[in-house]
Design a protein that fits this description.
heterodimer; A: alpha/beta; Rossmann fold; about 35% helix; globular; B: alpha/beta; 2 domains; 13 helices; 17 strands
Chain lengths: ~280, ~375
Amino acid sequence: MNKELVKISPCFEDIMPQEYKELVDQGPFGKNVGISDLGSFKELLEEHPLCAGCGLALSMRLILASLPNPEDTIIVGSTGCSALAFSQVALHNIHSLFGNQNAVATGLKRALKLRFPNKIKDVVVIAGDGATADIGLDMVMHSWFRGENITTIMLDNEAYANTGGQESGMSLEGTVLNMAPKGKNFPKIALTEIAKMSGCGYVATCNPSKPKVLEKMVRRAILTAREVGPSYLQIFTPCPTNYKLKSNEVLNLLKKREKAETYATTEFLSTEAEEFLKSVEGGNK
Amino acid sequence: MKNQRVVEPEYLFFDAEREKKFITGSEAIKEAIKRANVDMAIAYPITPQSESMHLVGDIFAEGYLREYFRGENEFAVMSEVTGAAMGGVRVFTATGGPGTLRAFEMFPTWVGARLPIVCAFLTRGINSPLTIQPDTIEMAYMLDTGMLMLHAETAQDLYDMLLKAFIIAETTEVHIPIGVFADGFFVTHTKEGVEIASEDIKLPAYDPYTAPVPVMDMENPPVRQMRDPFVMKSNFISYAAHASWQQETVSAGERARKYIHKYLGGLVEVENEDADILIVTSGTAVSQSREAIALAKEEGINVGLIKIKSIRPFPTEEIKQLTSKAKAIIVPEFNRVGWLSREIKSVVNDSDKVHGAPRVYGGMTMPIELILAEIRRCSL
């Protein structure tokens, strides 16, 4: 991105909203900032409309602050709670339909490779568990089979939250939710295992209670997609509204589930991805 | 990449020397795409479309396109085409029949997103019950997607309409997708003489920065931009924004009329318009009607013909005016539902004079005798 693009024409300076002026003066573009710099730069997500305590909202803030190359990152989202926040994100981002995010990202990434052969353009899919593991699973998996250079990040709140708390394939077995009145009767989909078998060079799970770990994983997932092949990051983002949690209980739940090993932090690297990441990270962990 | 000379669209369409080749409709698609400066094509097989996208793959291998791959199903392919178009390249794909319905959710989305995608629809029946035979019923479903719809009668039409569709679709004040429809098998699998330009020339490249909406490449402002933002909050501004956006896409389709006139010579073609009996139809039903009209002439019955080339936008004023004096209007169609006769009934002054017959479906070629029988009935 040419930094001139975000600059405000002098004759409009007096009428531009304050948050946009801040984005121009203090935004993260070209500054190589990250999680530890939060508070010192203007974040890309502005006044999202998600619920108090939403694990997804916190994760989106952290993901956006972790992007290695925000000035040349295009995000493809999907239908769900996250889509409500994406209109507030200061990056080019696409909402097409429910479930087609990895197919849209495929076409987009290939188009950008044609148009900018000598420039890095990161295409990152950020979508919910329903979009990724249920309605869009075929397109998610086929983008992996084809070896597309895209990062897939699932915001896993273990339910269809935006439509009112229905069971998803990522809900835990036995959970009582709408459309599962007697409790879900099959296990959580093992999408990380599917990802490893389907060609992803980097597969990881984490949660937003450990921001530095999340940041490392976002960066590794994006760098892998850039140079090696598809990558998959699954982030546990509990929904206080549909799971009837107080907003201040969400972080405790993340820690509890991690301790109980029902949502562990994990990382898998293919040999190729490991070698590549070693070469770019230069021993820094 | 093949070394082709970029020429003005008007030169390629009207002035360039043409050579007549005896080819199928599928081959006519290949010849059009070869000259269309397409960046990317995405394929998925379905009869009777498959051969056309094999051939596009062949010209990709020869270096006429920069990218080509097979997607995983039609909904995915139409989504992949969406991503490519939002990324600012010229894309092409083709489908037909059940593939059209499988992909259906994407078509109004293309329009709302103002994507200038060109898609060939090589029509066939849909599965009620299972069929792979010729039929135009899928066009009934497509009428209200907001896409522009051109209907080819012949392989020549298909070649010309495809090339012109890119230029019309990409015009800034239009910038919505165009479906170029041709009757599967009858056009795709039969050979005819098609006049084509030299393969050394091609259309100018698509410039994505002429689009009325931002390209998703982080290279053009504003960077705070979602394609396409939700305008579904419960307040008046959201309702008004959504309504006015829809009105603008309708207007974009209306603004295409002048370009259809410029490049296709109008939305309709007319022969013998003063006759008391007029056949009004589109696609290969036009060719069959020509044969029936010739037989009727031998019997002393005078019949005129209106060939509709543009289904969307629909030639409302043209049809209204051209049929005002006719005593009978016959609309032969290759489908059960009679979508074209419904369209025509909705615009003529007296809908009682519209005879929505014959309707042929299930797989057979439209018998000329059935059209002739309808002409005879109307001449009594």
